[in-house]
């Protein structure tokens, strides 16, 4: 049986109290929301904080606010709440889909939006128990000095496996980070960087408190996820797409984000731009799909063959854009879920 290491437990009741704790403890303190990723990591000794700081008593982080000008989503809103919320439809459908595809209902009842956005990067050589990792001399991400995915690399190649980040990046989301010295608001795309260890720009003394979204009137969005099993598994490829169409069906604006093929979600800027001013027809979709697949550079550190995952990226971009066009792809989603184990 894997047991948790010893730690000090703190349960602040306000954000101000929480950031004082983070400021005093530094990197040795970690926020605890649902704990669905952090606690298993601690059992495997991947993360060994001296202090766990629960966020459950911070009522400021549990809000869902919808206004004509936009939405505010508290960091401790659960993924189940997001998946069930009917106001996450049409323009924000991608977020509801991404939340609903995470793990199992029991885990979604505990897992939070903020926790999924700050999800630790994953790798076949890292996500093992302590004894397994010790047998290979550990890895660059934890306790070792070699990235076994790319032994000649000085950088860790662990993969971003968050579901909600690509969806929210396609929606142009921003996040609020609060520290004892103040607060800052940054685009979600700037929260991540291409490094498996230093994958997030949030500082140890900062707390992610909420996600901010502008109005999505006139937009449509969707999220597609590849995994071996139809439930529970982390993504090994994901595509989020959002578009605003004119009354004539011409793309006015578009965003495509490819997830789980690098240390951070990748914004497919060229693919998105290629759609603007054009209808979502076969030609424009095929061009955008090819451009979206071009930026995907998966490595051999997750499930499925890496070259196949790169090729299938174009197919997933195609699915997403066809759905935005209005095609009924419920059958394709069902088949993908049922037969993913045979891929």
Describe what you observe in this structure.
The protein is built from twelve helices and twelve strands. It has 343 residues and is an alpha+beta fold. The protein has two domains: 59-117 and 160-342, 2-Layer Sandwich (Uridine Diphospho-n-acetylenolpyruvylglucosamine Reductase, domain 3); 123-157, no CATH class. Helix 4 (93-100) packs antiparallel against helix 8, helix 9 packs antiparallel against helix 10 (282-294) and helix 10 runs antiparallel to helix 11 (306-325). The radius of gyration is 20 Å and the shape is globular.
**Mean of residue pLDDT?**
95
Strand order of the largest sheet: 4-5-8-6-7
- Beginning-to-end CA distance, first to last residue: 33 Å
CATH class of the largest domain, named: Alpha Beta
CATH topology of the largest domain: Uridine Diphospho-n-acetylenolpyruvylglucosamine Reductase, domain 3
The total number of structural domains is 2
Structural class: alpha+beta
**Strand/helix succession:** EHEHEEEHHHHHHEEEEEEEHHHH
Number of helices: 12
CATH architecture of the largest domain: 2-Layer Sandwich
What is the total tally of β strands?
12
Catalogue the unreliable spans. none
Strand content: 15-25%
Rg measurement, Å: 20 Å
Oligomer: single chain
The profile of the biggest β sheet is: 5 strands, antiparallel
Shape: globular
- Fraction of residues in helices? 25-40%
């Amino acid at each position: 049986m894997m047991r948790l290491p010893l730690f000090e437990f703190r349960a602040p009741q306000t954000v101000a109290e929480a950031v004082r704790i983070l400021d005093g403890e530094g990197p040795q303190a970690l926020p605890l929301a649902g704990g669905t990723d952090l606690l298993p990591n601690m059992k495997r000794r991947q993360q060994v904080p001296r202090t766990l700081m629960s966020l459950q008593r911070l009522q400021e982080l549990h809000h869902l606010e919808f206004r004509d000008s936009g939405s505010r989503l508290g960091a401790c809103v659960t993924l189940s709440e997001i998946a069930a919320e009917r106001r996450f439809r049409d323009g924000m459908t991608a977020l509801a889909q991404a939340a609903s595809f995470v793990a199992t209902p029991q885990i979604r009842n505990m897992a939070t939006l903020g926790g999924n956005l700050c999800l630790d990067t994953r790798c076949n050589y890292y996500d093992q128990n302590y004894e397994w990792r010790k047998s290979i001399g550990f890895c660059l991400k934890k306790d070792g000095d070699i990235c076994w995915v790319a032994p000649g690399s000085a950088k860790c190649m662990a993969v971003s496996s968050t579901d909600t980040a690509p969806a929210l990046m396609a929606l142009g989301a921003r996040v609020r980070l609060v520290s004892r010295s103040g607060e800052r608001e940054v685009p979600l795309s700037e929260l991540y960087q291409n490094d498996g260890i230093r994958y997030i720009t949030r500082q140890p003394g900062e707390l992610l408190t909420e996600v901010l979204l502008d109005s999505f009137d006139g937009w449509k969005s969707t999220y597609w996820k590849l995994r071996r099993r139809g439930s529970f598994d982390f993504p090994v490829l994901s595509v989020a797409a959002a578009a605003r169409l004119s009354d004539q069906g011409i793309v006015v604006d578009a965003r495509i984000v490819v997830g789980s093929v690098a240390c951070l979600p990748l914004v497919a800027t060229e693919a998105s731009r290629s759609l603007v001013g054009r209808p979502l027809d076969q030609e424009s979709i095929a061009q955008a799909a090819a451009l979206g697949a071009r930026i995907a550079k998966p490595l051999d550190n997750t499930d499925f063959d890496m070259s196949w995952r790169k090729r299938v990226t174009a197919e997933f971009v195609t699915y997403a854009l066809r759905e935005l066009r209005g095609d009924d792809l419920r059958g394709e989603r069902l088949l993908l879920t049922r037969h993913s184990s045979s891929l």
